[in-house]
Amino acid sequence: MINEFKMKLSGAIEHLDRDLNKLRTGRANPTMLDGVLVSAYGSKMPLANVAMISIPEARQLLVKPFDPNTIGDVEKAILDANLGLNPTNDGETLRITIPQLTEELRRDIVKDAKKAGENSKITIRNIRKDAMDDVKKDAELTEDQKKSMEANIQDLVNEYNKKVDDIVKAKEADIMTI
In the chain, N or C: fewer CB atoms in 10 Å? Predict the structure, then answer.
């Protein structure tokens, strides 16, 4: 029961990491384009399935479609994703220069990071509630065992909430660094 609980908590942390990796920090990061869906070959696909994404410079992404005929679709998908990125099309590749972040934009991104952290804490609380309910319903456990398991669950929740705070704080420092 505790191992399953730990796996769910780890899943919440992994989800937070994915959410925070999508936030702009002023440096190029291929995960910024994770949510981009390209309409190609009659269906919508993730950008990573139709193009290779690399980082030639610290503030630049290079997107090279596997099929050169889809470059227009890839460019349109990046523009439609409203990421604030403007790709430059040279016929074979797309170069995306990551603009310098203003102080105001950095603060807005930090707010988004804190919001993602708070959502993770809500998820952790919901996982805790489910685990506590499972412990209370378990007829095979004695009252002392139930109290012990509840204390273990709360200790794990505190540990994972601290991890969330640390991750968000590190991301905030990364965003605010010029």
Answer: C
Q: Rounded to whole angstroms, what are the CA distances from 57 to 22, 98, 153? A: 18, 10, 45
Q: pLDDT tens-digit profile of 152-173?
A: 999 999 999 999 999 999 999 8
The helix or strand, by DSSP H or E, that contains position 46, with its residue range, turns out to be strand 43-46
- Write out the two tokens for 3: 């191992």
User: What pTM was estimated for this model as a whole?
Assistant: 0.74
pLDDT tens digits for range 23-39? 777 778 888 888 889 99
**What does the alpha-carbon distance between residue 107 and residue 103 come to, in Å, rounded to a whole number?**
6
Single-letter amino acid, residue 31: T
